[in-house]
Amino acid sequence: MTDRQPQWFHFGPLVFDIDAALALIAHAPRDTRPLDVTAWATGYGLNRLDDPDRTTVNLIGPTSDSLDRLYAMSTDLTNPVLLGLVRIGDTPPAGLLIDGVHRLYHAWRKGVPHLQAYLLTAEETLHIQQDRLLGPGGTSFIRPLA
């Protein structure tokens, strides 16, 4: 038996600690909410991944060669996905699927109308968010010259 690898979700310069998110949910249990599979799959461009005549690029979802379809089709659709609420500047927080893209693809391919989702608050999302350039806790990987 091998040790489980830590799970991270990368979105631009942001990195989300999925293990920390799951720990938050375990510490503060909450009900799941239904996630509209068609709407989210469309938003993430999953409905266009297999189109041979694609003329668009996904800005938020995976590229056609980065989604492991065989793995996706083996995922457990009863396992809730994770949504974080992310603030960019002074805008209101917006939902971001931080764990479950493979499950979303699987559900979309099978015509499942909804997946269950845990929703993190904006504060919880900020707590599990790190900056790839600045490092954990927002500190720089680059040390100042002495």
Report strand order across the widest sheet: 3-6-4-5
Integer-rounded radius of gyration: 17 Å
Low-confidence stretches: 137-146
Strand content: 15-25%
How many domains? The number is 1
Mean of all residue-level pLDDT scores: 83
Structural class: alpha+beta
Regarding quaternary structure, what we see is single chain
**Total beta strand runs:** 7
Number of H- or I-type helical stretches = 5
Q: Identify the overall geometry.
A: globular
The helix/strand order is: EEHEHHEEHEHE
Main sheet: strands, sense, barrel: 4 strands, mixed
- Fraction of residues in helix: 25-40%
Span between N and C termini? 46 Å
Kindly describe this structure.
The chain is an alpha+beta fold. It has one domain. 26% of the residues lie in helices and 23% in strands. The protein has a four-stranded mixed sheet with strand order 3-6-4-5. A three-stranded antiparallel sheet has the order 1-2-7. β4 and β5 form a beta hairpin. α2 packs across α4. It is globular. The C terminus is likely disordered.
What's the topology here?
Elements: E1 8-11, E2 14-17, H1 18-27, E3 33-36, H2 37-43, H3 69-72, E4 81-86, E5 94-99, H4 101-110, E6 114-119, H5 122-128, E7 129-131
Parallel strand pairs: 4-6
Antiparallel strand pairs: 1-2, 2-7, 3-6, 4-5
Helix pairs in contact: 2-4
Summarize the structure.
The chain is α+β, with helices and mostly antiparallel strands and 146 residues long. Helices cover 26% and strands 23% of the residues.
